[in-house]
Amino acid sequence: MMTILAIVGGFLILTFGAEALVRGASAVALRLGIAPLVIGLTIVAFGTSAPELAVSLKSALAGNSGIALGNVIGSNIANIGLILALTALIRPIKVQSQMVKRDIPLMIAASVLFWFMLFDGELGFVDGLILVIALISYLVFSYISSKNSNEEIDVDTTPQNPLLSTVLIVVGICMLVGGGILFVDGAVDLAKAFGVSEVVIGLTIVAIGTSMPELVTSVVAALKGESDIAIGNVVGSNLFNILAILGITSLIQPVSSAGLQNFDFAVMLALAVVLLPFAWTGLRIGRREGGVLLAAYLAYISYLVINAA
């Protein structure tokens, strides 16, 4: 009963946290003259990736590298195959040219770099340092590009009070972290009760649990007509998961890839690559593309379940 309450309570907290974060971030974007896409790629992406950071750090320090690494790989797969797919099925997503020319290719490059770094079976301190430097460079470049852009900014300006907007962002992030951890703890306890392995838990239950903020935030943003925040949240979260989550975690504690298969990395990279032509065609991700992505994700999850059994 406590496990079920943790899962339900965590999801409710995530829902309210996502609503607060999207409202606050949209208002900040307008006030600072920053495009909503960049807000989605940075502030919203960092906020929704906060549960991944908490879970990965907690798992790595406890010696559970399988959960730490599986969490990031599984979350990146879920972000595209589940979150973006469901969002597109609910409402087709408009895509800016910047996304297909810069941000999605950078996500693909980060995925390739991540896979390459794990050829020796471990992410160490030097790997973490490279990832964090890449993250900082990306954030600085995104901010400068946004300020130099002549793109018209059109976002929901409610609320306009800067203090209230900041409070909503902070409260939203805190609720996403707390709700995400509560949801994951309940889900992991439920999975362990059925004898599911650590790596499979990381790739599925924990990954989906820590991706719940992205799901709720993207759906809320899409329903509000903030498609820039919706897709920026997913692509930005995938970048943050690799560059920030794994970067910070491996700086503190080396992360081993023991137990993970090349197939998992291949699926993560394949979905990132497929997203590029999907977004490029007509600069939108429609329900058909969403259906294909969701089918691919369900096939992957089915493979994991059958293989584990």
From TrEMBL:
Membrane-protein topology: Multi-pass membrane protein
Entry keyword Transmembrane: yes
Domain Sodium/calcium exchanger membrane region: 4-143, 165-304
Subcellular location as annotated: Membrane
Record field: transmembrane: 67-90, 102-119, 125-144, 164-184, 199-223, 230-253, 265-283, 290-306
Top-level taxon of the source organism: Bacteria
One Pfam match: Na_Ca_ex
Keywords: Membrane, Transmembrane, Transmembrane helix
Protein name per its UniProtKB record: Calcium/sodium antiporter
